[in-house]
TrEMBL record:
Lineage, top ranks: Bacteria, Pseudomonadati, Pseudomonadota, Gammaproteobacteria, Salinisphaerales
SUPFAM superfamilies in the record: alpha/beta-Hydrolases
Residue stretches making up the AB hydrolase-1 domain: 66-318
One example GO MF annotation: hydrolase activity
InterPro entries documented for this protein: AB_hydrolase_1 (IPR000073), AB_hydrolase_fold (IPR029058), AB_hydrolase_sf (IPR050266), Epox_hydrolase-like (IPR000639)
The keyword Signal belongs to this UniProt entry's keyword annotation: yes
Alphabetically ordered keywords of this record: Hydrolase, Signal
Residues of the signal peptide: 1-18
Protein name: Alpha/beta hydrolase
Keyword Hydrolase: yes
Native source species: Spectribacter hydrogenoxidans
Length: 335
């Protein structure tokens, strides 16, 4: 009996530790990134908007090329840690920003949250850093942004690389109803670590959870702990609306740069699955089929698949992903 009580106590103590999350600040001011973070003030008529970024120099002389890393909706530039190391070791300069509305960057309540605006912001940052040409690597929502960047600035884009991008389907055209900003805000304002971890476990990692995933779930959850959570929740609500209302899939045929898709085949991520019936749930987020369709729609596109990997190849299987990434980058360098 005593051993049973001890076991129960330990179980609940472990759960309590797992669910307790440090207040990292609405701008992640209490979370350390893997490299020094700089801040560039974007000038607007309503005042400057800070845009945080890492600019990491290559090892040695470098190869003269720059890779731009664009993060996903539920992540920040910090989760590119291993990818940055891989790229700088291979001679690349790496620029990894937090987009406006996310993480260490500003979260203005009244702002033009659109993929066009975020792409323009990113181009302005590159101008500030005197970077002319980039390989653009975007994951999840960052894949939608990377696509928009390549469409707006083809002359600056050496190659487009998309890692399990969302937006390979138009959810509203598929029948997902519009939720609305207020509804998104209510959901976001009530978000906590338990919900974040459960969502990531169910959708990103196909039910499997490893200790190395914990840091990124806590990073996100840490912005929802303090007194300023409403600012985070409102920015997230506006950007959810952006993702739903601004599909890029219909413009894939207009992409003018060489493109590589890296698709984890277990991924089933899709916006608004909780709003539709089971039949539509089963059809949405079919990444094996979506990856093939995107490859066929994008001129000069290549498809790299990972059969047993979900939404985050660079987190779930970093060695395999980075090997494939460097092979694709070397192809780009010799073209």
């Amino acid at each position: 009996m005593r051993l049973t009580l001890i076991a129960v106590f330990c179980l609940f103590a472990g759960l309590a530790r797992a669910q307790s999350v440090e207040d990292l600040g609405a701008d992640l001011e209490n979370f350390d990134y893997p490299h020094p973070v700089e801040v560039f003030d974007l000038e607007t008529l309503r005042g400057p908007v800070p845009m945080a970024y890492m600019d990491v120099a290559p090892e040695g002389e470098g190869n003269g090329e720059t890779v731009l890393l664009l993060h996903g909706k539920n992540f920040c530039a910090a989760y590119w840690e291993a990818t940055i190391t891989t790229l700088v070791d291979a001679g690349y300069r790496v620029v990894a920003p937090d987009q406006v509305g996310f993480c260490k960057s500003g979260k203005p309540a009244a702002y033009g949250y659109s993929f066009h605006q975020l792409a323009a912001n990113t181009a302005t940052l590159l101008d500030e850093l005197e970077v002319e040409q980039v390989t653009v690597l975007g994951h999840s929502m960052g894949g939608m942004l990377a696509t928009r960047f390549a469409l707006m600035f083809p002359e600056r884009t050496d190659r487009l690389m998309l890692v399990n991008p969302i937006g390979l389907e138009d959810w509203k055209a598929e029948g997902v109803p519009y939720r609305g900003v207020d509804a998104w805000y209510r959901r976001e304002a009530g978000k906590d670590f338990t919900a974040i971890r459960r969502y990531q476990q169910n959708y990103y990692y196909d039910g499997e959870w490893k200790p190395e995933y914990e840091r990124w779930a806590r990073m996100l959850a840490g912005m929802y702990v303090g007194d300023d959570v409403s600012r985070v929740a409102w920015a997230q609500a506006l950007t959810y609306d952006m993702v739903y209302t601004q599909p890029v899939v219909h413009e894939f045929g207009n992409i003018q740069v060489p493109t590589t898709l890296f698709i984890g085949q277990r991924d089933r991520t899709a916006l608004g699955k909780d709003l539709v019936d089971d039949e539509l749930v089963d059809r949405l987020g079919d990444y094996p089929a979506l990856g093939r369709a995107a490859r066929d729609a994008i001129p000069d596109a290549e498809l790299v698949t990972f059969d047993d990997i979900g939404h985050l190849p660079h987190i779930e299987a970093p060695a395999r992903f980075h090997d494939a990434l460097l092979k694709a980058s070397n192809v780009s360098a010799t073209e």
